[in-house]
Amino acid sequence: MACSLSFELVGKIVCMILLVLQGVILDFYLAKERDFKSLGFIATDVIVVAIWVGVMFMAKRKFLSKLKMRKRKEKEKTDGKPRKTPSDYADEIPYVFIAWLAYVSITLVPEVAVIFKRYAAELRDAKIWHQNLLKIALCITPMLFLLLVNSHHDARPYSERRVYIDKISAGVTLDLLDSIDILEVLFIDDIELNLPVGLENAIIAFACINFFLPTLALMELRAITKGQVNSTASKVLYSISYICLVNVPLGAIRIILWTNYEQDVSVFIGKNLIASAIYSFDIYESCGPQKPEQCPTCEKHFSPDRIDGHRIECTSTFSEPEDNASEMLVSPVT
Predict the structure, then answer these.
(1) Cα 267 vs. chain centroid, distance in angstroms?
(2) Whose CA, among 64, 69, 173, 302, lies 20 to 30 Å from 195?
């Protein structure tokens, strides 16, 4: 338990350090190009840090409150047996999507759009203060996602929830690195490559859209606890988003750069094909015979092998108060 708490604390501290470090580096590039009007992003960085700290405290407070309430309910007894309660969130993940959404919308996407639209071609020199440091700063983004997830969940090793968290985290991290890789083409001099403005804008747009999509992943993880899963519609939307907004467009752009502009083929083109196939299989699986089933009592979704057990637990939990209430009404009469 102490080790778990230590990792959680260290993870959150490192998360904040990397968030500040990335903000400082991106602000440095804006100042270096003498775009002093863009230094207003310093204020947005401060706002994002404040939001992250607030979300972390709120998530911990809400989690401890729910944990205390759940323990109190478990101590209540009916007919000498512990009273069971419906599945509840097991950790702090339900709240961290707020932090990520604020991070990408307030500071990351606007700064990346400004830097790559105005100055990327001027950073083609590979000196430490040129494109290399900017690449390292952008690589902090997938690291932030991993730390944000792993410092806010309490899933046991080898549990179903832990396996699902690891699967989502690995996929999202790879997709974020995919966006960073596609942005590298904008470091090439405009005169040398002569990309049309529309293609440049498409590269920046799809890369920035990908920075938003981890919000969906974090919302997907909210429901995965004690056999509970997301609805079929939610899972299909998630898979389609990563096919149509990440892997297909970025793969198509790479093919265009290869065939029309004689650019080296990135290994991520293979990732685009493989990921599209995996997400397509996930859609088939979500709509097939093993699709999630909805509990008629609490209206939550569960895997087919867990729904029967949950229905018994859920029905008994919601019916107990009514049984106790009827007993209280009958006893004075007798």
Answers:
(1) 24
(2) 173
The pLDDT score that the predictor gives to residue 158 is 74
Q: Residues of the chain with pLDDT > 90: what percent?
A: 34
